[in-house]
Amino acid sequence: MIHHKHVILDHFMVNDWVIDCKRFTATRAQLQARLEPKAALILQYLASRPGEVISREELFQVFWPNQVVTEDALNRVIFTLRKTLNDSSTEPQYIATIRKSGYRLVAEVKVPPSPKISSKVLAFSSLLVFLAGALFIFSSIKPTANGLPLKLKLTGELHRLTYSTKTKHMPHLSEDAKHLTYLELDKKTGNTLVLMSVSDDKKVYYHDAHLEFSFPIISPASSGVFSITKNLRSPISYAISLTDFENSRTRPIFTLKSESTGLSYHPQSKSLVFTQRAAPFVAHKVTLYDPLLSTTKTLSSPPTGQSDTQPIFSPSGKKIAFLRSKSSNELAVYSVTLDGKEQQLTQFQNQITAFDWLDNNRIVFSNEHGVFLLTYEGKISRLFTPSPDQQVTSIQLAYKTNQLLLTLQHASSIGKAVDFTTKRQTHALTLSNGLDSEFAISPNAAKMAFASTREGYKTLWFRHNNHLRSINNTRFDDIYDLAWSDNSEQLAAVVKHNAQYGLLLFNFVTDQFDVHWQDKIPLHVIGWDKHNQIWHAKLTGQDWTLAQYNPIQRTTTEYPAINAYQARFTLNKENLIYIDATHQALWTWDFNSAPKKAVLPQNVNLNRNWDAAPHGIYYVSAKGTLNHFNVQSGVIQRSLTIKNAFSSKHRPQARLYGLVGTHKVITYNDFWLSSLQATKSPQ
């Protein structure tokens, strides 16, 4: 575990090298070298305890938690560091190997001098683009009462709140920015609720073996935290609960009809807003709860097949912002008033990682490109672009202090496979500091295709005969649903570019591809049938329509009676298994008679996270475990007990006696606090 008594610096010197762990660079004189993120963080960890021997076991525990990796993983990182720093293993000037023990940093560690800028600011130099000058005037901002426009000023001071390699998510800052609560995932204790004092970094932990927490928010008492709780002894038992940290207890205050995808509290009205399903498998809707009257009121009305998540009160409590999805990569921010009047605030886009109200008329939101300011009239201005190695995964405003909380995360993803005929462990298919995803192995097992950001943007990649290459001119905003033809010579995939979807067909023999563009209609590729035609689902109006595409004749046959949101062929391709977007029920269709509905357990949530299997389906749970659901018996069995083995965001694919999928690796994710000021100035 990390030794918190030692200071972890983001900007420091080892001998004459200046190390920047936010930009992942090493600089000496006029030479600047790039550090791999994992290598930079391990050097940072060694530098926090110079002269001490740090065991290999500790480094594996800290930097590869809950992962099955070989000894060579650490060897490669140390080798890379020594090569970058021009160090020698036999005569070390930086990192010494202590035989049968570990490693010791023998170099001198010091903080670079900076007479004009505080060391705290230097420590966060990778974000100074966000803060430097930090004066933005937006023509779209409403004028104030005296006619003077507002301009946003970021003060230039960032404070890092957490230093931990443990997975932390769902942070919530109190309105006065004095307390922070969040969830921490630990392989021993599981889901733990944390309450932290921002000023002195003191933390209180709360864990209940029978409860699983989500969406924590600080109550006005500051020693209490509201959250959505799931009773693990009853899989479909959910409630809004209040955890009292002083007395170490949690009590339910309102029982929910289903799981929830968000929670917000308004201290003045003492109201809570959350989402829930009105019935099993139907869409989530924004729901208002009045604790004083013990009444609920449904506020949002998503169209058929769409769902609402992450509701957040405006400062006045008169509006609620929320996220609406019509597919896994079509998200938009909406708002709704207390009398149910909705307004769409953003266009639908690939990803929206977080959002919050800046005031009653403006919203700050983040996606894969950075942080943006959004006016209620729909005008957008960019506030912050993270480095290529970072992503903003959450943001929140503390209204009373005008401070912005950000979660900065570095994550990569790789391909992993599991062989069901041997000991059930996962094996890495790729190694990358980028985002590899959507893995598909050809039927003859000779080729593998996947999407990756290794070149700084998403492209299509292939591995064949141990040769890895990208496909020229396949740069798109998104690539997913990769599917091989039966003869292993052609690949189909969905691509998205400038909000337009297309069906990509790549011929491995000719090394050429073509895109059959479908305008702005979301698509899901299913696969190739026995006649070498491609089946897919497309959103037509509010319904998902099943379609069959003939790549030779370039014709499409539609089956409007089949409302298939996500579908897979059975292994023999004699049947189609699909879920519908309306009720997320599981159906089986033999292409001739009427589809048959299977009873799906309420705690099984399917989207892109499943594939056909013998007698049923394999699916990846929200915790990353792999499970098998038998359609005939209704029995669920754990196929792989390792947590976080696969990402539930990406589509897994069963092949022969195994399965391939995407595994997400979080190198770090920590919380940062920045002051934010809205001032007046003459036009």
UniProtKB/TrEMBL annotation:
Record keyword NADP present: no
The keyword Metal-binding is assigned to this record: no
Pfam families: PD40, Trans_reg_C
InterPro entries recorded: 6-blade_b-propeller_TolB-like, OmpR/PhoB-type_DNA-bd, Sig_transdc_resp-reg_C-effctor, WD40, WH-like_DNA-bd_sf
Transmembrane segments: none
GO molecular function: DNA binding
DNA-binding span(s): 9-107
Key words of the record: DNA-binding
CDD domains found in the cross-reference section: trans_reg_C
Domain OmpR/PhoB-type stretches: 9-107
Gene3D superfamilies: TolB, C-terminal domain (2.120.10.30), Winged helix-like DNA-binding domain superfamily/Winged helix DNA-binding domain (1.10.10.10)
Family according to the record: Belongs to the TolB family.
Protein name: OmpR/PhoB-type domain-containing protein
